[in-house]
Design brief:
268 residues; 7-stranded parallel sheet; 7 strands; Rossmann fold; alpha/beta
Length: 268
C-alpha cells in the first residue's frame, strides 16, 4: 500500500485507544515513516505503543500528553518535527463525549469539555500551523462530530465544542490552502470506542477500522468535511434540506432519550 501516507510523519492525540489508536496503526500499515502517539493515559499508551513498536520498529514514539496543557501539546508537535525536520500530518483526535440532561450539567462539565474538545484541538492546530506554513505543506485533521452539524437533544455541551471545531477547521482551509496546507474535520455518528465508557455502544455504531478507512479515503481526496457513516450523511442532509422531516426525527429522539433517562438512567 502506501500512497498518500507513504513516508509521512504524523502526530496523533488520543492515540492509545479508539479512533486515535486505529489512525496510528493505519498510518504505519500504509507506509508511514513515524507516528508520535500522544495520550494522557500512561498505562494504555505504554501498552499500545510497545505493541506497535514490535510490528513497526523505529517508527513509534509515545509522548505522554495532556492536550489541555499548551506546553505539552507544543512538546508533542515539536518532537514530531524534530525527527527529520518536517511535520506531515497532525490528527487532533483526543476528546470526551458529553450526553446528559441539562439539569445534570454543571459549569465544571462545561469547562472540562471546552478545555479538552475545543482548546485541545486549538492547541494542536495552532502549534502545527507555523511549522507547516514554513515548510509549505501539511495536513491537519480535527475531530468533529455529526452533533456539531445538527442539533441533538441532551448533547448541547458536546455540540457546542464540536461545532466550534468544525467552523474553525473550515475557515482555516480557505485561509491557508494557497500556502500548501490542507485541513479536514471528521464528523462521525456513533463509533465503537471507549468514549462510551462502561456502556455497550449503541446498535447503530460502526467499528473503528471502518471509520478510519473512510476518513483516510476522504483525506486522500482532500475533503475538508468528512461525515460518516452513510446514516450520518443522510441525517445531515435532512437537517439542511428537509426541515419538517428532520424536526420529527429529532423530537422523536428527544422523547426516546427522555424516557431512557427516566427508566434506565442513560440515553439509550
Amino acid at each position: 500500500m502506501g500512497g498518500y501516507f507513504e513516508n509521512k510523519i504524523a502526530a496523533v492525540t488520543g492515540a492509545a485507544s479508539g479512533i486515535g489508536l486505529e489512525i496510528s496503526e493505519q498510518v504505519l500499515s500504509r507506509g508511514g515513516r513515524a507516528v508520535f502517539m500522544a495520550d494522557v493515559k500512561e498505562e494504555n499508551l505504554t501498552r499500545e505503543s510497545e505493541r506497535l513498536k514490535e510490528k513497526y520498529p523505529g517508527k513509534v514514539f509515545p509522548v505522554l500528553t495532556d492536550v489541555t496543557k499548551l506546553e505539552q501539546v507544543q512538546k508533542l508537535i515539536g518532537s514530531a518535527k524534530d525527527l527529520e525536520g518536517r511535520l506531515d500530518l497532525v490528527f487532533n483526535n483526543a476528546g470526551t463525549g458529553v450526553t446528559l440532561p441539562t439539569g445534570q450539567i454543571t459549569f465544571e462539565i462545561w469547562r472540562f469539555a471546552v478545555d479538552l474538545n475545543l482548546m485541545g484541538i486549538v492547541y494542536g492546530t495552532y502549534s502545527a500551523i507555523p511549522i507547516m506554513r514554513e515548510q509549505g505543506f501539511g495536513h491537519i485533521v480535527n475531530a468533529g462530530s455529526i452533533t456539531g452539524r445538527v442539533p441533538v437533544p441532551y448533547q448541547a455541551v458536546y455540540a457546542a465544542t464540536k461545532s466550534a471545531v468544525i467552523s474553525m477547521t473550515e475557515s482555516l482551509q480557505y485561509e491557508l490552502e494557497t500556502e500548501g496546507l490542507q485541513f479536514s474535520v471528521y464528523c462521525p455518528a456513533n463509533v465503537r470506542t471507549p468514549i462510551f465508557g462502561a456502556l455497550t455502544p449503541p446498535a447503530d455504531s460502526i467499528g473503528v477500522d471502518e471509520a478510519v478507512d473512510y476518513i483516510f479515503g476522504e483525506m486522500e481526496k482532500k475533503s475538508v468535511l468528512i461525515i460518516l457513516p452513510e446514516s450520518a450523511r443522510q441525517f445531515d442532509i435532512a437537517y439542511r434540506e428537509h426541515k419538517e422531516m428532520f424536526e420529527k426525527l429529532v423530537r422523536d429522539l428527544a422523547a426516546e432519550r427522555r424516557e431512557n433517562y427516566r427508566t434506565k438512567g442513560t440515553y439509550y
